[in-house]
Design a protein that fits this description.
It is a peripheral membrane protein. Residues 237-593 form the Conserved oligomeric Golgi complex subunit 3 C-terminal domain. Keywords: Golgi apparatus, Membrane, Protein transport, Transport. Helix content is 67%, strand content 1%. By secondary structure, the chain is mostly helical. Among the domains are: 65-131; 202-264 and 272-369; 656-760, no CATH class. About 16% of the residues have low confidence.
Length: 785
């Protein structure tokens, strides 16, 4: 029994532990059943029986659940076996997949290699295709040589130049030449380039030949019709212009093929511009020659008719006006016709100059033989105002589609201006520089009594000016009339000088100088005018000084007033001409070098380096001398000098009686020192005003001069008074500086100045001379009492 229980325990212990099973109703009934040994729990009487009953019960329970455990174990073993099989299958599957993966990678590697090989083949194919295409593209520039040569060298090739196919061939030749220029490194590029250039030259030569041939045919047709019968102007115009316009557009188009290729290349070594430009020049030259054969004879004939006309045969200006108007009309027609034959204006003005040559041939001799300055001036004014543009006022550029006639007429203007300057210089030399005055020319102030010299008002400003500056800086007058008249009543027979353009009391050289300046002003180049105007003013200055020196032999005062009045007029007149400063003439003075060497030689130190270094800054080097010949500065300087000389001369005359040495005034008569001077001043003031009235009409100018003389007299008296005071103080005598002092003494400066104001009466005009003289005498007598 115990052995069975032990075996059961051992089997029970082998059963794996698991959660307690839930017993069904049947199992519960079986568990509650009484074991075989004891009928019921009531049969248990002692502990041994209980233990036996408990063990039997436990064994029975174990026996009853063993089958279920066995069934579960069997299921578990089956599940394990299945899982092991599944795991084995999975491992084999993974191994298969791994093998497949390796196979796929091998296939992928092979595919990549195959693809790379295919791509290499494709790239090689593409490269070969591109190479074949490039070879084909390159070969087309080489293959074009033979067909182009056959076309250009075929008989009658010149008849095809007007077709579109010929223009396309020229374009292809340009492309081939450009290709050869770019790919100069190719083996045969240089050879083909030279051949293509020969073909291009051949093609353009064919165009030139056809152009010239067509132009010659038109010329022959027109010239034959002109020679057959006498034509009127309308028919002649139709032949000369309408006939030439018929085929002009088509010929212009083929001529444009040459012009497009005559543009200079960027590479100066290309050397194609000379050849192609020469072809274009041949077109222009042939056209100009053919048109010249038709037009120039007609122009010469027309100009001869104008030159022989009574109204223009002797009048330069009338001939120039008529002939230039006719030439301008012809040039306008030729300008329009040129635009229908050619694109651009290259060679146009050379052709128009050929048309204008008959005009030059007629005008140049007439201009050279024209001696009248007025005619030359009128011709200059005509050319400048009607046919030339004012470059200073022109703001917009000239339209290239319009004829610039000024370039054609410029040579005529230059000839006229050159002749005008030459005649002006001759006039300056003969009539101003070498002028010899007649006695009537120097009869001053008698000439002023016939006509008065008119001078405008002086400068008015807020600052105080001296008398000299007030007279030397007068404003400009009205400008002389520039175009006097074609037939003045009084003219110089040699120079056509208009004597009525200026007052008759002016000195002749002054009148001629102003007349000459007014004539050439704005008719010649500004630089030339400035230089010539300075010479005119300079020589006029010299002439006026020479005349003044001749008048000075009779009267110094008249000579000074003559020079002063004429210099004032000259200054006023030249302001209107805007004379600019003349550039300085720089020269080297070597006189100091010679003097220095002679000085060193006399000193015996010629070869002493110390002496040479010491004398470097004292004449060893030549001096730079600037000779500035400026007419305005020269005129102002001489005007101030003559005004100062006149003022000083009159003031010195008035104060000549003032003593230079002083004695004891107590031994002198009353007023013996001052009264003679006062009487002399009272006497000279009317003379001063009288002589000023003879030369000047402007009241302000005369009063300015009188005031200047008064100031100078007071200055001289002040110097005299200072000397007098010094003399008296040295003798110990007291001299009062306030008031008149003693009756027999001199006046102080303020008293003398007050007295001078009452005598000179500056600024008071229109006073009666006799009353003024009596009042002045009375004032002096009242002071002497």
């Amino acid at each position: 029994m115990r052995q069975q229980n032990a075996g059961r325990r051992s089997r029970r212990q082998t059963v794996p532990s698991r959660p307690p099973l839930e017993l069904t109703g049947k199992e519960t009934e079986e568990a509650e059943a009484v074991p075989d040994g004891l009928d019921s729990i009531g049969d248990i009487h002692n502990e041994l029986e209980f233990t036996q009953w408990y063990n039997e019960l436990e064994d029975s329970l174990l026996e009853s659940s063993y089958d279920e455990y066995q069934a579960c174990l069997h299921e578990l073993q089956m599940s394990k076996s299945h899982l092991d099989t599944l795991l084995s299958d999975t491992s084999s599957t993974l191994d298969l997949l791994s093998n497949l993966s390796k196979g796929f990678k091998a296939v992928e590697a092979q595919t990549s290699n195959f693809r790379n090989q295919c791509e290499g083949l494709l790239s090689a194919q593409k490269r070969d295709s591109e190479l074949a295409t490039d070879i084909q593209d390159n070969l087309q520039y080489y293959d074009f040589l033979d067909p182009a040569s056959r076309k250009l060298n075929a008989p009658g090739a010149g008849n095809t130049v007007r077709g579109q196919e010929f223009s396309d061939m020229l374009r292809r030749l340009d492309e081939c030449l450009d290709y050869m220029e770019i790919h100069a490194d190719q083996k045969e590029a240089g050879v083909y380039r030279s051949r293509y250039r020969l073909l291009m030259t051949r093609a353009l030569t064919l165009i030139r030949g056809h152009f010239v041939s067509a132009l010659r045919d038109v010329y022959l047709s027109v010239s034959k019709k002109i020679a057959d019968k006498q034509l009127n102007d309308t028919t002649m115009s139709a032949l000369l212009y309408a006939k030439f316009r018929v085929g002009a557009p088509e010929l212009k188009q083929i001529g444009l093929e040459i012009q497009k290729r005559a543009v200079p290349p960027l590479d100066p070594e290309q050397g194609t511009e000379a050849e192609y430009q020469s072809l274009l020049n041949e077109l222009h030259a042939n056209y100009a020659a053919i048109r010249g054969k038709l037009i120039v004879p007609l122009v010469r004939k027309k100009l001869n008719e104008i030159a022989q006309a009574p109204s223009t045969s002797t009048d330069l200006v009338a001939f120039a006006r008529g002939s230039i108007s006719y030439i301008r009309g012809v040039c306008l027609d030729e300008f329009d016709l040129w635009g229908e034959w050619f694109h651009g204006q290259g060679g146009l003005y050379d052709f128009l100059e050929t048309i204008c040559e008959p005009l030059y041939d007629h005008l140049q001799p007439r201009i050279i033989h024209e001696d009248k300055i007025i005619k030359l001036c009128q011709l200059c004014a005509l050319l400048q105002t009607r046919y030339l543009f004012d470059q200073e006022e022109e703001t917009e550029p000239t339209d290239v589609n319009q004829l610039d006639f000024s370039t054609l007429i410029q040579p005529v203007l230059e000839d006229v201006q050159t002749r005008l300057v030459f005649r002006a210089q001759a006039f300056l030399r003969d009539e101003i520089e070498r002028y010899k005055p007649r006695p009537d020319d120097l009869d001053y102030p008698a000439r002023n009594k016939q006509a008065s010299i008119s001078v405008t008002d002086g400068q008015i400003s807020g600052r105080k000016v001296t008398a000299t500056d007030a007279l030397a800086n007068l404003p400009k007058p009205a400008k002389q009339p520039e175009d006097g008249a074609d037939s003045p009543s009084e003219q110089d027979s040699k120079w056509d000088f208009e004597s009525q353009v200026s007052p008759s009391n002016w000195y002749p050289t002054l009148r001629k100088a102003i007349w000459l300046l007014s004539r050439i002003y704005r008719l010649v180049n500004s630089t030339v005018f400035d230089d010539l105007a300075h010479q005119i003013v300079h020589q006029t200055n010299i002439s006026l000084h020479h005349a003044s020196s001749l008048i000075a032999s009779k009267s110094v005062t008249d000579s000074q007033l003559f020079l002063m009045s004429h210099l004032l007029i000259l200054k006023q007149q030249i302001v209107a001409f805007d004379i600019e400063y003349v550039a300085p003439e720089v020269s080297f003075d070597f006189s100091g070098v010679t003097n220095t060497f002679w000085e060193l030689r006399e000193r015996g130190g010629l070869f002493n380096p110390r002496n040479l270094m010491r004398l470097v800054g004292h004449g060893l080097l030549p001096r730079v001398v600037e000779n500035m010949l400026d007419a305005k500065v020269e005129l102002d300087g001489r005007l101030r000098t003559v005004i100062n000389d006149f003022i000083s001369g009159f003031a010195t005359t008035m104060t000549a009686s003032l003593p230079s040495k002083f004695v004891d005034t107590r031994n002198l008569q009353r007023g013996e020192l001052i009264y003679p001077t006062c009487r002399n001043i009272e006497k000279e003031v009317p003379n001063l005003r009288t002589i000023l009235n003879d030369y000047l009409d402007d009241v302000r100018m005369k009063e300015t001069l009188v005031g200047a003389v008064q100031e100078r007299v007071i200055q001289i008296y002040e110097e005299f008074f200072d000397k007098y005071m010094s003399s008296e103080k040295s003798k110990g005598h007291f001299v009062s500086t306030k008031g008149k002092g003693r009756e027999d003494a001199v006046w102080d400066v303020d008293t003398f100045a007050d007295w001078c104001e009452s005598i000179f009466r500056v600024g008071i005009s229109g006073a009666d001379d006799e009353a003024t003289s009596r009042s002045r005498s009375g004032s002096l007598e009242s002071r002497s009492q």
